[in-house]
Amino acid sequence: METAPFNEELIDTHLVVDVRTPLEYEEDHLPGAINVPLLTNEERVEIGILHKEIGPHAARRRGLELTAHRFPQMVEEIATAAAGRPILVYCWRGGLRSKTVTVILDLAGFKAVQLQGGYKSFRHEVSEYFTPFTPKAPLVVLHGMTGIGKTTLLQRLKERGNSVLDLEGLACHRGSAFGQLGLNQTLTQKRFETLLWDEIRKAPLDRPLILEGESERIGRVSLPGDFYQKMAAGVRVWCFASLETRVQRLIDEYGLPGYKEEMAVALQRIRKKLGGKRCEELAENLEKWELEPFMAGLVNDYYDKVYYKNRSWEADTELGMEDFDQAAVELERYLSLHFKTGGASA
User: Fold this and answer.
1) CA dihedral sign, ordered 69, 73, 76, 82
2) 3-class SS at 115?
3) Is there a contact between 94 and 115 (Cβ–Cβ < 8 Å)?
4) CA 318 centroid distance within chain
5) In the prediction, which pLDDT does 267 show?
6) What angle separates helix 260-269 from helix 276-287, to the nearest 10 degrees?
7) pTM of this structure
8) What is d(CA 256, CA 246) in angstroms, rounded to the nearest whole number?
9) Does the pLDDT at position 318 exceed 80?
10) What is the number of alpha carbons within 13 Å of residue 155 lying toward its C-beta?
């Protein structure tokens, strides 16, 4: 039976098979991995108790009783997904579960490799990658007040062939008090870090990586290692637009009747920041679905007082955001000149 230490190239060349339980897989897994569990969540608990109370021999015999009848179906499922590619099998730490499935695949005539150290070795790789984080391409960070449309600009830049990293998209959260409207941030910290690692490793090295300025926390997840500090050291772009434009963009993004109840709950979470009287006024605007005064109130009395209130740094360039296509062209022009003249170290 063949084994291999973790190498990111394996992800691209092999079908990656996670034979851990659905719960373990849901918490985090290697990029692109399919879940073909050897044991169910409940069976793993049962085996663990047997191992602890009676011993490894009894646990292994019970494991065989529970799983032997599944082997043909597992081989079929994996072979179909592999479609001729070699197979990389892993469990928690390169133990019996992945060894069992790898041997069975071998016996059935498929080229299968067991990942040495299992998921644990991959997790170590991701943690090390961000501590310290050494960007392979220059980071260009878009800053600006809420409602500017930084995420939309990122999308336009991506459509135009630029290298873009959407942190809020990966985190399933917009990073503000109203950031989870219409989203469901169920991913774990480990899962977020894996997704981030995978996006960065796939980014081209011959152009800057453009991303949005964020706090260290995005909803319930945090930027790993010293990623936040490396963002702060990148090229800083200050984006600006009129209040009217910002209010309209907030209405376009959040002004859906289906969000009304969630918006009312989110408003109460920032009651202290707004003050009771102002909060009640905005709650009344929301109840009447008066979105312009509601959004303008949030911008003036909350967002602009909380975010970037004390900006202690100078921007490398400023970017008007009234028109997204024009902003994209202007930013591309600036970056072309900036890096052409040796500004990549800025």
Assistant:
1) negative
2) strand
3) yes
4) 28
5) 92
6) 180
7) 0.89
8) 17
9) yes
10) 7
Mean pLDDT for the chain overall: 92
Tokens 């990586």 sit at which residue?
Answer: 209
Q: What is the mean pLDDT of residues 328-341?
A: 91
- Residue of 259, 305, 260 lying closest to 278 (CA atoms): 305
* Best CA proximity match to 283, nearest among 261, 304, 299: 261
List, in sequence order, the alpha helices (H) in the chain: 8-13, 22-27, 41-53, 56-67, 71-82, 96-107, 118-129, 150-159, 167-171, 189-202, 227-232, 243-254, 260-269, 271-274, 276-287, 291-298, 304-306, 324-340
Cα–Cα dist 183/259, whole Å: 10
Name the residue among 260, 253, 269, 267 with its Cα closest to residue 288: 260
What separation in angstroms does the CA of 282 have from each of 47, 213, 250, 291? 56, 28, 15, 10
User: What pLDDT is stored for residue 181 in this prediction?
Assistant: 66
Paired sense of beta strands 15-18 and 34-35, if any: parallel
Of the candidates 153, 163, 165, 222, the one whose C-alpha atom is nearest the C-alpha of residue 192 is: 222
Q: What is the largest CA-CA distance in the chain?
A: 73
Please check whether residue 237 is in contact with residue 317, taking contact to mean a CB–CB distance below 8 angstroms. Answer: yes
What distance, in Å, lies between the first and last C-alpha atoms of the chain? 50
C-alpha 268: how far from chain center: 28
- For 247, residues 6+ apart whose C-beta sits below 8 A from its C-beta are 147, 292, 295, 296, 299
